[in-house]
Amino acid sequence: MTTPVSTIRSQPSQSNTSLPPGDGNAHEHDDNPEDILFDALQTLYDYQPVTFTSAGASYTYTYPRSLTSSSIKITLRTPDTDAVNWSLHASSVWIASTQLANGINFLRIDHHLQRIGSGGDGTKEDPERPLRLLELGASAGLPSILIARVFPDVSVVASDYPDSNIIRTLTQNIRDNGAEANCHAAPFGWGTDPSPLFSLGKADGVYVGFDLIIAADTLWNPDLHSIFIDTLQRTLRRDRHSRVHLVAGLHTGRYTIDSFLRSIRGVGFRVLEIMEREVTAAGGGEKAGSRQWDVARAEYEEEKDRRGWVIWIEICWEECYVS
User: Fold this and answer.
1) How confident is the model at residue 22 (pLDDT cuts 50, 70, 90)?
2) Mean pLDDT across the stretch 213-235?
3) Cβ count within 10 A of residue 289
4) Where is this region: Disordered (predicted)?
5) Rounded to 5 degrees, what are φ and ψ at 76?
């Protein structure tokens, strides 16, 4: 029996947050009716949008300058899908995607690069092996493209459902933003054979599994949790240092997220950390307010509060190393 093929994307999920006036970093998008509505919600009601842009619209994200690098401007074309795949919700940039980009420091990529280079014990773990990162449900590709630009030594594979329009737009976004040297677009349906993914990227030879897997808003459909977990099992490198980082907007629903957390346990994985983090402007991930995950908030939180937070989940194998 063939396993169903699907992408898991949080219903409103994937995207960058609009920045407050005067913040110095602007998210730019086309002036279409949906974009105007998103801006109006934020301006009139102080509601944080959960999605930005519509199919075919452009979106610009600016990652601020740091002590070690200049600012990075990424301009994306939002994918459209074939008509039969409208339910993928891939034709927007969702807030979880922008928050994942804002908080790339939480991925501790520098630490992983150093570990591979030194083996963690003063020896070379594998001097020929690159650090490999996979994004599931990449859509427009914001987190993958940003990571590839900030960390040129990381081999990035940005994957999404094998819809020709999604993959074409994702490939073009990678090329247009100068990330093609170490970032590759790949069609991939969850539950299918992942081995073609292992040969992609900045590597000589085939390395089974990825050191890091990221995904934004891929938990919204509980019917797809089992196939998503199966995909994580088949694509995460079997190593005690390997990590999965998931970001989900609360439009996903606290009970749906809780259902996923219960499903992930007992299948070889361990939930290393789950935090609620405030929605921030570009580059402000580490300055965001945070609090412990609590499913009980579903009983009393209001829509405005729900829109102001995203959930960060870090997963590892049961035998994982905790630094």
Assistant:
1) very low
2) 95
3) 11
4) 1-32
5) -120, 145
pLDDT of residue 11: 36
Q: How far apart are CA 70 and CA 81, in angstroms?
A: 34
pLDDT at 18: 30
Q: What confidence score (pLDDT) does residue 94 get?
A: 85
Q: Which residues contact 70 (CB under 8 A, 6 or more apart)?
A: none
> Cα dihedral angle (87, 91, 95, 99), rounded to 10 degrees?
110
Q: Give this prediction's pTM.
A: 0.82
∠ CA 200-205-210, nearest 5°, is 55
Question: What is the tens place of the pLDDT at every residue in 93-141?
Answer: 788 999 999 999 999 999 999 988 755 444 555 666 789 999 999 999 9
Label each residue of the chain as H, E or C: CCCCCECCCCCCCCCCCCCCCCCCCCCEECCCHHHHHHHHHHHHHCCCCCEECCCCCEEEEEECCCCCCCCEEEEEECCCCCHHHHHHCCCCEEHHHHHHHHCHHHHCHHHHHHHHHHCCCCCCCCCCCCEEEEEECCCCCHHHHHHHHHCCCEEEEEEECCCHHHHHHHHHHHHHCCCCCCEEEEECCECCCCHHHHCCCCCCCCCCCECEEEEECCCCCHHHHHHHHHHHHHHECCCCCCEEEEEEEHHHCHHHHHHHHHHHECCCEEEEEEEEEECCCCCCHHHCCEEECCHHHHHCCCHHHHHCEEEEEEEEECCCCCC
CB atoms within 10 A of CB 105: 13
| CA–CA gap between residue 95 and residue 309 (Å, rounded) | 10
Whether pLDDT at 7 is above 50: no
Span 200-209, pLDDT tens digits: 865 555 678 9
